[in-house]
Amino acid sequence: FDHPASPSSNSSGSDGEEDTTLMGGKYSRYALSEFTMQSDDAVVLHGFAGYFTCILYKDITLSTVPSSHSPGMFSWFPMYLPITTPILVKRGESITLLLWRISTPTRVWYEWCLSKPTVTSVQNANGVSFSVRL
Question: pLDDT category, 13, cuts 50, 70, 90?
Answer without folding.
Answer: very low
